[in-house]
Amino acid sequence: MKSWLRSAQVAFTFIGTVVGAGFASGKEVMQFFTRFGQWGPLLILLSTFFFVWIGAKVMLLAADLKARSYEDLNKHLFGDHAGRLISHVMLIVLLCVNAVMLAGAGTIFSEHLNLGYQSGLLITIAGCFLLLRNGIESIMVINSIVVPVMMAFTVLLVYDTLQEPGANRWLTLASDLSPWAAGLSPFLYAAFNLAMSQAVLVPLGTAIGDARTLRRGAWLGGIGIGILLLSGHMTLSARMPGISQFDIPMGGIARELGPWIHWIFVLLIFMEIFTTLVADTYGLTLQLNSRTGLAPWIITAALLSFCFVIGQFGFGTLLSTLYPTFGLFSLGWLFLISRDRALKPKL
Asked: Membrane spanning segments where (predicted)?
């Protein structure tokens, strides 16, 4: 029972790291799956396969190598020179992703809580800094709270969708988009999210150490991500094409269910942003600590200060500018790690 509970913590951390604000808002599900109509479930199934396979591979390799940070893993996979280069690029990407997450938190505070953008940035930074003083355990604990809440919210949306006349449109919805774009979509989605999540999956694999626990965690987490994606796809498909005009599609659906559900949705968006920010900052702190030898709290404070400065550009601008570039880079990383035969984890 203790081992299964530990696997559940691994799964929740995996889900919470991968399924961030983009999923909670509905924007990612719409962009990568729902707009391709009846192909959506098949694309989600392919993405789920990658999450289970590559997620397990990253954690098991980290445990086998006792890797302290994602740079240790990349050096082993790709050699010292290429691994260091990939890690440098990852450092820049994760810093920018953190800035995007922080900007998103500021936007939540300004648009929904009337507390001001700068106040949102500072409150989020303070919470992140205090939580990270407890390391990987605190990340597992917060995800063990946030992810079940997100799942419960998703179940509520699916239940409401099943009462709608178009409940089965996720199986019949037509799309005139290119089959090539549809075929590439699950690779881009899985690649970007897995490349970003290795900042947490590597230290998590090392901290847990037990292969059986990690395999179960990868299965539970990967399948959980797939179920959440499919649930989001079902919910959005039933309201197509009208729902596609919203910047935050799930927000439009939440408003239909009343003010209390809408407030839960706003809180959920913030917590997903917060957990992603905490997880990525932790991975970067470990990476820079192994290079510089500086105290972790100093590195964390410096990283959050940098994100505060970059966050002044705003959430929308950063998201639209940075994410497409990161997706292409991550596709190369996925190709390289999938070809590596250093360890073939038994799934």
From this structure: 42-65, 85-109, 115-132, 139-159, 179-205, 217-240, 260-282, 294-315, 321-338
State how many domains the chain has. Answer: 1
Are the C-beta atoms of 63 and 209 separated by less than 8 Å? yes
Establish how many alpha carbons lie within 13 A of residue 89's alpha carbon, considering only the half-sphere containing its beta carbon.
Answer: 15
pLDDT in tens, 215-246: 999 999 999 999 999 988 888 888 877 777 76
In a domain, 346, yes or no: no
pTM for the whole structure: 0.82
CA dihedral over 273, 148, 230, 180, signed as positive or negative: positive
Peptide bond before residue 249 is cis, with ω within 30 degrees of 0? no
Q: How far apart are CA 26 and CA 276, in angstroms?
A: 16
Sequence-distant (6+) residues with CB within 8 A of 339 are: none
- What CA dihedral angle connects 7, 13, 18 and 21, to 10 degrees? 140
Contact 99, 310 (CB under 8 A): yes
> What three-state secondary structure class fits 343?
coil
Domain limits at 266? 2-339
Asked if residue 140 is part of any domain, the answer here is yes
The DSSP line for 282-330 is HHHHHHHHHHH---HHHHHHHHHHHHHHHGGG-HHHHHHHHHHHHHHHH
CATH (domain of 282): 1.10.4160.10
Over residues 243-269, the pLDDT tens digits come to: 777 666 776 677 777 777 778 877 887
Residue 117 lies in a domain: yes
Numbers of helices and strands, H then E, in the chain: 15, 0
Compute CA distances 162 → 146, 156, 236, 237, 330, whole Å: 25, 10, 12, 11, 36
As to burial, measured by CB atoms within 10 angstroms (0-12 exposed, 13-18 middle, 19+ buried), residue 113 is: middle
Would residue 345 count as lying in a domain? no
d(CA 293, CA 327) in angstroms, rounded, equals: 31
